[in-house]
Amino acid sequence: MQWTERHRAYWRRNLKITSLLLAIWFIVTFVLGFFARDLNFTFFGWPFSFWVGAQGAPLVYVMLVAFYAHHMEKLDRQLGMAEDDNES
Known about the structure:
Layout: H1 5-36, E1 42-43, E2 46-47, H2 48-78
Antiparallel strand pairs: 1-2
């Protein structure tokens, strides 16, 4: 299959958003998780490090997936790459 300029633009944008989201994932998982134990204050009766690990990180992961799905749907429509629901 010969790639058109539209395919190249789609792939470049896909790589950019994927790289950005992976950077956010890395920061939340490793950087914030590593430094969370140094945050010694209570948040709603629990140590803040507990909230980062038990509530914050999974919430960020769900938001990353939702943002990626929304962004890629928009990109599909913009560049004419969306699958047509009417075709079988």
